[in-house]
């Protein structure tokens, strides 16, 4: 919602983009031509993936004419938009250039909006164009059937709401600070995930750091047995997923309908592992944290001693273990591969002899999982706060202090 009455607040003005910015569409393609000058090309995906464009991005190499270089070399505060797309929802996705980018030019299928400094501030414009109500102007007028595009007139005539430039800069600065916090949190999560990935490999192959961990080779059939109990009433029905393990069927976007009664499902007890026999060679399994029901098309195994199932859940994700699942699966083609318990049982794995050592390794990895979950929650909160703050500040529902007040 823009405002209660559909008009900008006092002190803001409604302007056409073409009145506050020079709008240009690039025609520079990805080809390299011997009679043109080498450049770095900011292409469609650079704009689509990045809210901010800077010199550190891995731009592709291309060439351009001197005239194209003059018109489309990126400058600080330029706003870039996607002007063509296969879907309307991807039209007019904005990005802003953070600093002058000598040698970087804008590529084909993209538009450049260069604001007049006395009228508009690029980071504010880019942020406002992300608001659904403003982007709707472009989506509504995008022309095409299988591919949609914007004309220059459509972009130039699109309306924006602009406070005085000093207020634009204050708003953009506040939102930019949140963006920086989001980017930092995303980087921390990525680094923690990489740390866990390396730690899993080291712990499960070399054991605990600073102490000798004795490993022993076992057959999975010696530490697991199949559970073939019929389901009982009132337990949740779950599906086995590639990345999230066991997930309640009600939470899956692609709802899985079944006419089977509860007692026609397989019972899964807490601590069991259920796996998809058709995709175990891809690592599709889940560790049960509570009693539940799964389709009879799955295989359910329960630990019999010597191997903790939570340790096995990490072990089963190792590339070397997945390769064994693939090797032991049977079928004429990959889409027909099956890993029944009879093929699962003879697979050999190396595990710490001490169950206590297994527990310590699981605890170490759980600490990282908790850290990643906490960081992900923080990222969600920041993203939600950014969305609410953007809506309020960029439409004038909440006003920032004037320059005089801010500098007093």
Automatic annotation (TrEMBL):
Tell me where in this chain the Type I restriction modification DNA specificity domain is found: 9-191
- Its domain of life reads Bacteria
Which biological processes are named by the entry's GO terms? DNA restriction-modification system
Keyword Cell inner membrane tagged:
no
Q: Does the keyword DNA-binding apply?
A: yes
| Molecular function GO terms recorded | DNA binding
Instruction: Provide this UniProt record's keywords sorted from A to Z.
Output: DNA-binding, Restriction system
Q: Which PANTHER family match?
A: TYPE I RESTRICTION ENZYME MJAVIII SPECIFICITY SUBUNIT, TYPE-1 RESTRICTION ENZYME ECOKI SPECIFICITY PROTEIN
Q: Which family does it belong to?
A: Belongs to the type-I restriction system S methylase family.
Query: Could you tell me what this protein is called?
Result: EcoKI restriction-modification system protein HsdS
């Amino acid at each position: 919602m823009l405002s209660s009455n559909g008009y900008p607040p006092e002190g803001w003005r409604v302007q056409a983009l073409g009145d506050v910015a020079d709008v240009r569409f690039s025609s520079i393609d990805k080809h390299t031509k011997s009679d043109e000058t080498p450049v770095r090309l900011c292409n469609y995906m650079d704009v689509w993936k990045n809210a901010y464009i800077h010199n550190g991005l891995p731009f592709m190499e291309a060439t351009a004419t001197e005239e194209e270089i003059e018109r489309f070399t990126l400058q600080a505060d330029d706003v870039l938009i996607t002007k063509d797309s296969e879907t309307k929802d991807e039209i007019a996705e904005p990005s802003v250039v953070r600093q002058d980018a000598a040698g970087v030019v804008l590529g084909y299928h993209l538009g450049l909006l260069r604001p007049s400094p006395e009228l508009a501030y690029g980071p504010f414009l880019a942020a406002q164009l992300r608001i659904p109500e403003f982007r709707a102007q472009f989506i509504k007028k995008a022309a095409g059937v299988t591919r949609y595009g914007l004309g220059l007139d459509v972009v130039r005539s699109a309306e924006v709401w602009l406070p005085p430039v000093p207020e634009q800069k204050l708003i953009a600065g506040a939102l930019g600070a949140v963006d920086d916090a989001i980017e930092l949190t995303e980087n921390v999560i990525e680094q923690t995930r990489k740390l866990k990935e390396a730690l899993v490999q080291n712990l499960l192959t070399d054991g605990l750091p600073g102490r000798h961990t004795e490993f022993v080779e076992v057959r999975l059939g010696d530490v697991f047995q199949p559970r073939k109990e019929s389901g009982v009433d009132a337990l949740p029905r779950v599906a086995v997923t590639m990345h999230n393990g066991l997930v309640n069927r009600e939470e899956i976007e692609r709802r899985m309908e079944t006419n089977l009664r509860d007692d026609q499902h397989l019972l899964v007890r807490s601590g069991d592992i259920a796996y998809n026999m058709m995709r175990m060679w891809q690592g599709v399994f889940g560790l049960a944290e509570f009693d539940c029901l799964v389709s009879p098309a799955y295989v359910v195994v329960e630990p019999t001693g010597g191997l903790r199932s939570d340790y096995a859940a990490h072990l089963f994700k190792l590339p070397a273990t997945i390769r064994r699942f693939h090797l032991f699966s049977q079928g004429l083609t990959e889409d027909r591969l099956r890993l029944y318990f009879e093929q699962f049982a003879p697979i050999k794995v190396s595990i710490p002899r001490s169950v206590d050592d297994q527990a310590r390794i699981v605890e170490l990895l759980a600490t990282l999982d908790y850290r990643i979950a906490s960081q992900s929650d923080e990222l969600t909160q920041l993203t939600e706060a950014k969305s609410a703050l953007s809506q309020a500040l960029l439409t004038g529902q909440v006003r920032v202090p004037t320059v005089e007040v801010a500098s007093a």
